[in-house]
Amino acid sequence: MGVGKSCLLHQFTERKFMSDCPHTIGVEFGTRIIEAGNQKIKLQIWDTAGQERFRAVTRSYYRGAAGALMVYDITRRNTYNHLSSWLTDARNLTNPNTVIFLIGNKTDLEAQREVTYEEAKQFADENGLLFMETSAKSGEKVEDAFVDTARKIHQNILDGSIEPNMADNGVTEKRDTLRPAPPNPPKESCSC
Amino acid sequence: MTSLDHGDTAHNKNPLNKKLQKILNPKFLSDIDTQDALLALSDFFPENNVRSRRKLRSDTELRGLRLNEEFLASLETVNSALEQLSVEVKSIDSCYKDMTARLGETRERCAEVLEQTATLQKEMQQVEKRSLLLDAFCHKFQLSSQETQLLEQADEVGPSFFQALRKVQHIHTDCQTLIRSSDLHVGLEIMESMAGIQERAYENLFRWCQRTCRSFTGEFPVFTHELKNALQIVSQREALRVYVLDDYVTTRRSSLVRSFIDSLTLGGPGGNPKPIEMHSHDPVRYASDLLGWLHQAMASENELLVALLLQDIPDSVVSVDKSEIPMLLNRICEGASHMVKVRLEQILSNVIDSMDLFRISNNIRFYQNVYHGFLGDNSELLKFVADMYELSLKLFAKHLNGHASKLLESVSEPPFDLEPTIQFTESLTLLRSILSLENTSVAPLEGNRPLLHTIYESLVAPLIEYATISASLDSTLSQAELLIYQINCCDRLHQGLALYYSTGEETGFEKLLVQLQTHQDRLIQEQASFFLSKAKLNIIHMHYLTADKSYEGALSLYSGLESDSLLQAILSLQQLLALPDQHPIPQLDCLRSKKIRDYILGSGMRLVCDFYTSLHSSISDPSNGYGDLKDKLHQPSEIEHLLL
């Protein structure tokens, strides 16, 4: 059982919960167009396998990411404990402007919660990450997580801290109308 | 007076009365003429004296004369005026006559003019009608100069362009009706001109599409509604469509190559993430980065192609062949994939570590599946990936073969404990690590026949060979020991492979099983003979088997199967039954696997029991002449109970 990365993606792109989701083999991907600041933004989302054995493959997908969603399972503390190693990977393999969003998934299982919101929030604050708790099953906050990531990236472009169209930063701008085309935040996560 | 008159009507008839009346009521007093005469008289008769009265007559005559003279003079003036008037009237009359004549003339002429006017007016109405018709016709069958210009020369393509083009097409269609219904000549002419305009418009649109497609050099171009529309229209001419898509493909291909070079050499902003080439010393990572990059590029380009060719196309006129997307995608990725290929070949040939080579090989296989999802069968790119995979397998096989030939060059004798030798174990460890890595990597081993075959041919088969050669080196070993050693080796191998070995695939692994089974069968025989010889039944067994086949007559008369010999053997068997420790071959303990050990022993004893059962029934048969020997025998079931 994973932390729910593929389910989050499925919920975001199809607005459906995928029960019996198999382990991701290697890497998969999905797209969706959202609006931010009156502009259409196409998100290209790479869903990487969480299992350690795929790491040799998945780490190649940090390159070119404008944002990364790092997911743990609030009902399993060990997934939370792995965060720092995933964060190290993310920091080493992405560019410094990559927006990293911490996601605590499975809020629908509140009764089995092992990681408190406050604790994770503190971890996120200490490491300069955005943070949100979601439920891929109920769909709660899933939209927000992705859209907020995209907004943050968009904001970075407007502020000038991300230069679109440069190699490997994952953001491209439509030349004539200042439309940042797809930032592709790959999701990556702590495996179980 | 009137009242008086009224009152005296009767008196009126009296003449006197009349006279009186006349005097009393002189009429002249009321007569105006008299009054005027008196008034005029007062002018020249101021005083009523004698002189005056005498002169009155002459005065009056004078006056009358003068008045007449004046009157005459006045009349003469009048007369002359009248004469003049008469002259003028005459001239007027002549003028009038003249005019009348002219009028008459004019009237005659006017009639003509009017007639003409009427005709003209009628004509004009017709002309106007025609003009309206012509206008309507022109509107329906001609383009405005603006539209023509738009179609033939516009640099930019917008909604008005498409509107004009649609009109051209409508006109063209309408002309067919026109030809059928009325004017063949005009219809054909318009059709021809429209066809010309349409052709030039297509040409123009085509050039525009080309220009637009050539501008898609960025990483993620955005397609306008116009472009999709234009492409749809251009697609009606297959050749033009091919050219436009060619341009698109060429542009995207070079864009992809450029950004690949950037990723290879520049990396992200400020060199973070690091350029891919920075990891070229780590072959596994480098290969993975290259293949992963290609995957991401392929996915993005696929998205773009779908957006360009399939999504929300207005007034779709050309049915899009979905199968062309993989073909285009393949061509777009060609440039970058070639670069990947060159690099992969390079690293593959330089990898030293077999495990690294194997990891890369697995990654290539994983991406072979991934790319296949985008490109389908029969794509050049997949062929290259397949080539790469084959190459990696070949190199991997070469590594393994190198290892195997080294292994077979230094075969050593079986150790004392009959366990596999150190060299054998080392190779086995390599095999296990390969397989366990395979198990944890991205590409499933199951169904991967070429890989399993390679592993069998290059590692498993040499190991089996090693065991055989090794066993033959020590001539002092008994047959049983030899078998035990080989079973140990094969079993270790089998244990290592069992998890990954899938039946029904001709990968060579089944040969190992056959080998193992042969060794085991032979060892079972060994075990049975060992027991029989221990029980001194071996000679009996031999004779019995020979006799069973050819001898006809009482068995007790057969040499070696006499009652005495049998009795002795059976006694020693009964002794042996009490000593179960003595039953197995002593070296059987050297068999690593308890399961095999039990199997060998069990099957060996089963053979013994079968022989015993057969022997027992022969002895019990009175025709064999053993007499009451059978009473001294255990029942076969008892023996089975003790041995099995």
TrEMBL record, chain A:
Keywords: GTP-binding, Nucleotide-binding. The keyword GTP-binding applies. GO terms for molecular function: GTP binding; GTPase activity. Pfam families: Ras (PF00071). Residues 161-192 are annotated as: Disordered. InterPro entries: P-loop_NTPase, Rab_GTPases_membrane_traffic, Small_GTP-bd, Small_GTPase. Transmembrane segments: none annotated. PANTHER family: DRAB11-RELATED. Belongs to the small GTPase superfamily. Rab family. This is Ras-related protein Rab-14. It comes from Oopsacas minuta.
UniProtKB/TrEMBL annotation, chain B:
Coiled coil: none annotated. GO terms for biological process: intra-Golgi vesicle-mediated transport; protein transport. It comes from the Eukaryota. One of its GO terms (cellular component) is Golgi membrane. InterPro entries: COG6 (IPR010490), COG6_C (IPR048369), COG6_N (IPR048368). Pfam families: COG6_C, COG6_N. It is found in: Golgi apparatus membrane. Keywords: Golgi apparatus, Membrane, Protein transport, Transport. Its main location: Golgi. Residues 41-153 form the Conserved oligomeric complex COG6 N-terminal domain. It is a peripheral membrane protein. Residues 186-643 form the Conserved Oligomeric Golgi complex subunit 6 C-terminal domain. Component of the conserved oligomeric Golgi complex which is composed of eight different subunits and is required for normal Golgi morphology and localization. Required for normal Golgi function. Belongs to the COG6 family. This is Conserved oligomeric Golgi complex subunit 6. It comes from Oopsacas minuta.
